[in-house]
Amino acid sequence: MGPKAAVKARVSNKVVPHESATESGGAPRHVVDNTQPSSGGTAFKSNRSEMETYFDKLRLLDKIDNDTVGMKGIAQLMSDINIPNNTIQSYVLLWQFGASRNSRLSRSEWVTATYTYNVDGTSQLKLALNEWVSKVGNDKHLFFEMYSFLYDYLRGEHSRLMTVECAVAAWEVFFPAHKTLVQLVQWLKKEYSGSISRDLWRQVYFFLQAEENHNIQEPDTTRWPTVLSDFCEWRKTHFKY
């Protein structure tokens, strides 16, 4: 078996539960199980050393502290594995690494992830990421867990609630070209002056799924939070079905 085949063979299709709830209530996440028993202590130590050395290289780009990769380091990580920032691929990566602070990756999150997935270099990380993205794209339960988990990361470290601007930017990545989202964004920008709570963030997901799955013409506004009910009433006078 050649080197590339060996790497691919290590990327399992198995999905296993992995508890990583944030203190503020982030949802537990599931991970793609890339782990295999170590063939020896020396190889395991070598894998750890390579990825921790890489972590320190990324960390030095921001110089926040000895245990944190910041915005520049995360951008470099994305560049090294050839994925644009603020894309579904970058969101999946941050979710799988358990990133819970905006523009931050801690050493403990990094070490836990690289050990859990048995990742020993950026080439293997890119292969694993392709597998994770495929899994999330084909499993609505995994997608929702990722979506829920990333609320804390996306809202910003110094904000208790997410701003509309931040939520809209993320929704356009999670739900590209969704007709109802386009209308909702118009309403939020024109009529809404509040923030996006964790509950509203989750309810928007269910609302968009309901409209997509059932092609609702006149949705039952009583089943949704007041914000979404107000949007539905506004939409009746601004859009024809």
UniProtKB/TrEMBL annotation:
<dbReference type="InterPro" id="IPR042460">
    <property type="entry name" value="DCN1-like_PONY"/>
</dbReference>
<dbReference type="Pfam" id="PF03556">
    <property type="entry name" value="Cullin_binding"/>
</dbReference>
<dbReference type="InterPro" id="IPR005176">
    <property type="entry name" value="PONY_dom"/>
</dbReference>
<dbReference type="GO" id="GO:0045116">
    <property type="term" value="P:protein neddylation"/>
</dbReference>
<dbReference type="GO" id="GO:0032182">
    <property type="term" value="F:ubiquitin-like protein binding"/>
</dbReference>
<feature type="domain" description="DCUN1">
    <location>
        <begin position="46"/>
        <end position="236"/>
    </location>
</feature>
<comment type="function">
    <text>Neddylation of cullins play an essential role in the regulation of SCF-type complexes activity.</text>
</comment>
<dbReference type="InterPro" id="IPR014764">
    <property type="entry name" value="DCN-prot"/>
</dbReference>
<dbReference type="GO" id="GO:0000151">
    <property type="term" value="C:ubiquitin ligase complex"/>
</dbReference>
<dbReference type="GO" id="GO:0097602">
    <property type="term" value="F:cullin family protein binding"/>
</dbReference>
<dbReference type="GO" id="GO:0031624">
    <property type="term" value="F:ubiquitin conjugating enzyme binding"/>
</dbReference>
<feature type="compositionally biased region" description="Polar residues">
    <location>
        <begin position="33"/>
        <end position="45"/>
    </location>
</feature>
<feature type="region of interest" description="Disordered">
    <location>
        <begin position="1"/>
        <end position="45"/>
    </location>
</feature>
<protein>
    <recommendedName>
        <fullName>Defective in cullin neddylation protein</fullName>
    </recommendedName>
</protein>
